[in-house]
């Protein structure tokens, strides 16, 4: 059941037992996702590891992907803030200087995403595998950012180009490359070459 906000617009305070259950769920899911193949983790596994009933779990989270998204949320929000207001070349810079070239901003974005994937790929695989990737708010944000850079670079059809430039960040591809022995620095360097070739 959806809780109504208070009269002043603030959401209601979370009950102490609900907050404890949420913390248990997220901690258990984080351990399970990090322990191997996130796609093999079931909701029953998470409920057991958290020490709660299935009903309690499903009342808060309808599926495994929603739990992974909750865990990813704070990390993705921090990166979004850096893209909007951070120092160049990842961010646009201040009013006292020009925005960095689109290719340099895209290369910096790729490097930041490789860093995020290196630390949290198990969560991204749990939340954004296959078609689910395109339905997340984070993907929509990344797509808007890359389309903006493509537009600034003068590319035709920047919305289509944005999807194509985001394709190399698919978590399955990142995991494949890491399993093949490629380090994150080498992956980021290859993506920087792509950024400069596409938007340079």
The figure for the number of domains is 2
The description of the largest β-sheet is:
none
Shape: elongated
N-to-C SSE series? HHHHHHHHH
Strand content: under 5%
Any overview of this molecule?
The protein has 200 residues and is an all-alpha fold. It folds into 2 domains: 45 residues, Arc Repressor Mutant, subunit A, CATH 1.10.10.60; 136 residues. Helix 4 runs antiparallel to helix 5. The radius of gyration is 19 Å and the shape is elongated. It starts with 15 loop residues before the first helix and ends with a helix.
A few lines on this structure:
The protein is mainly α. It is 66% helix and 0% strand.
Task: Spell out the blueprint of helices and strands.
Blueprint: H1 16-34, H2 43-50, H3 54-60, H4 64-85, H5 102-127, H6 137-152, H7 158-166, H8 171-179, H9 184-199
Helix pairs in contact: 1-2, 1-4, 2-3, 4-5, 4-6, 5-6, 5-8, 5-9, 6-7
List keywords for this structure.
Arc Repressor Mutant, subunit A; mainly alpha; 200 residues; disordered N terminus; 9 helices
């Amino acid at each position: 059941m959806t809780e109504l906000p208070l009269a002043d617009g603030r959401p209601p305070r979370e009950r102490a037992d609900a907050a404890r259950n949420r913390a248990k769920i997220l901690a258990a899911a984080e351990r399970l996702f990090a322990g191997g193949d996130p796609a093999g983790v079931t909701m029953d596994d998470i409920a057991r590891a958290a020490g709660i009933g299935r009903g309690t779990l499903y009342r808060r989270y309808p599926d495994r992907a929603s739990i992974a998204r909750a865990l990813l949320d704070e990390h993705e929000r921090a990166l979004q803030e850096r893209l909007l207001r951070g120092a160049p070349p990842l961010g646009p810079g201040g009013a006292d200087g020009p925005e960095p070239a689109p290719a340099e901003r895209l290369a910096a974005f790729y490097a930041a995403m490789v860093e995020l994937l290196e630390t949290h790929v198990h969560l991204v695989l749990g939340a954004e595998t296959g078609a689910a990737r395109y339905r997340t708010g984070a993907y929509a944000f990344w797509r808007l950012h890359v389309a903006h850079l493509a537009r600034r670079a003068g590319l035709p059809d920047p919305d289509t180009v944005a999807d194509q430039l985001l394709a190399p960040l698919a978590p399955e591809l990142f995991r494949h490359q890491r399993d093949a022995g490629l380090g994150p620095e080498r992956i980021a360097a290859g993506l920087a070459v792509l950024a400069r070739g596409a938007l340079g």
